[in-house]
Specification:
Number of helices: 4
CATH superfamily: GAF domain
Radius of gyration: 15 Å
Shape: globular
CATH class: Alpha Beta
Length: about 170
């Protein structure tokens, strides 16, 4: 079934997030396979926010983070937990906002044009599932509004969309 997400670009960022989160909850269903849901998720975020240059998932197999569905330039295919922004978010199990990636110790440059980043861990029942990563070609692109709404939709993903089994079994 083809669905469409429509969010006007002139809206304030918080309103865009409210509409996006509401529409994603209708679009994403447990009946679809995970890769389809995550692919539609990345496309919706990419279409909604002009500031986003890359959006995607890194999925955890119990040892490393592996590239999942994304929108943007080609990317690193695996990341060690604790390395870079994604690995740090996974290790700490907390959202990491980086206003200037050049000032983040150990930042992994998959896209040399990336200037700022936000990474949200995907955790359900204390089990790490992966991370959601958003990059921008502008400095200071992400803040508390992004954190609030991305954490909300990631909670929905973890509790309602991710399968009960382990990611490595998918």
């Amino acid at each position: 079934m083809a669905d469409e997400i429509r969010i006007e670009q002139h809206l304030a960022e918080e309103e865009k997030y409210r509409l996006l989160n509401s529409q994603l909850k209708s679009l994403l269903t447990k009946e679809d396979i995970l890769i389809s849901n995550l692919s539609n998720f990345t496309a919706a975020v990419n279409d909604t926010f002009e500031k986003v240059s890359w959006v995607g998932f890194y999925l955890y197999d119990g040892k490393k983070l592996y590239l999942g569905p994304f929108q943007g330039k080609v990317a690193c295919t695996s990341i060690e937990v604790g390395m870079g922004v994604c690995g740090t978010s996974a290790e700490k199990r907390e959202t990491v906002i980086v206003p200037d990636v050049n000032k983040f110790p150990g930042h992994i440059f998959c896209d040399g044009d990336s200037k700022s980043e936000i990474v949200i861990p995907l955790v359900n029942q204390d089990q790490l599932l992966g991370v959601l990563d958003l990059d921008s070609h502008e400095y200071n692109s992400f803040g508390e509004i992004d954190k609030k709404y991305l954490e909300q939709i990631c909670k929905f993903l973890c509790e309602e969309i991710f399968p009960e089994n382990n990611i490595k079994d998918i």
